[in-house]
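Tokens help. Our protein:
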Amino acid sequence: MDVLIRAVNAALFVSHGIRRDTHITLHLCGGPGPDRRIWFNGETLAGVRPDERSIAGQIKAILKRPVPAIGTFDEVTQGIFDTGGGLSHTLAEWEREGVQLYVLDAGGEPVESVDEGERIGFLLSDHLPLDEAEIQATASLPRVSVGSDWLQGHACVTIVHHALDSR
């Protein structure tokens, strides 16, 4: 869980503020029960501090709730939504929304090659590589890299933000 919390922090928070143009979706698919997604919407997020304990508390409270139906986004607190579903559901939603998606992969093209678009998204794994089903689900998506070394997710998020902010 620490890996995910650090990714949320890196994705959303800047000094004295929140990246309003950024969203992050956590996929919680490893435990008992149905798959769950937690979506942090930077555009409307409020009441969360940029520290791991605060973010962990928000997630812990969500995990105590029953998993909502797939496609039902329950706003648990301002800017944080809970829904059922897994990666395939998120990929389908992003495709319908016109998000140009890239998979972070050490063997991909440099992240600087990403087309500047209105809506772009990045898929990255936690501390483990994508599993076979995830690789199959994302096979048609372009791969981009932040370097040849396997980095922690929050470091990748920071590098991607730097690359995009530098344009």
Summary: The two ends are 32 Å apart (CA to CA). Strands lie at 13-14, 17-18, 23-28, 36-41, 74-77, 80-84, 100-110, 120-123, 143-145.
